[in-house]
Amino acid sequence: MDTDLLRQRLIDLREEKNLSQSELARQIGMDNTAISKIESRTRKVSAEELNLFSDLNFQVKCNDDNEFLIVV
């Protein structure tokens, strides 16, 4: 999957849920600077982190090959 598409999808879904980066980070147990870096393309999202996003119904998942999928 295109990492820019994933990054934009995460931003869009966070904003749709009216969450700040800090609120999202707190809900999934991440540091808010990590969210900021993911959204600004200075850090990649790991498969484990992607699964944390999916737990919030962010409609993204990681398959067995660690490929990112968008669930619609």
Describe it for me?
The protein contains four helices and two strands; from the N terminus they run ααααββ. The longest helix is centred in the first third of the chain and has 14 residues, at 3-16. The two termini are 15 Å apart. With 72 residues, it is mainly α.
Task: Describe how the helices and strands are arranged.
Blueprint: H1 3-16, H2 21-28, H3 32-39, H4 47-55, E1 60-62, E2 68-70
Antiparallel strand pairs: 1-2
Q: What's the CATH C level? A: Mainly Alpha
Rg is 11 Å
Number of domains: 1
Sheet with the most strands? 2 strands, antiparallel
Give the strand order of the largest sheet, numbering strands 1, 2, ... along the chain. 1-2
The shape, in one word, is globular
Distinct helical segment count: 4
Which whole number gives the mean pLDDT? 79
Strand content: 5-15%
Give the number of DSSP strands. Answer: 2
What gap, in angstroms, lies between the N and C termini?
Answer: 15 Å
Structural class: mainly alpha
Classify the fold: give the CATH topology.
434 Repressor (Amino-terminal Domain)
Give helix and strand order, one letter per element, not per position. Answer: HHHHEE
Overall CATH architecture: Orthogonal Bundle
Residue share in helix: 40-55%
Superfamily (CATH H level) name = lambda repressor-like DNA-binding domains
Spans with pLDDT under 50 lasting ≥5 residues?
none
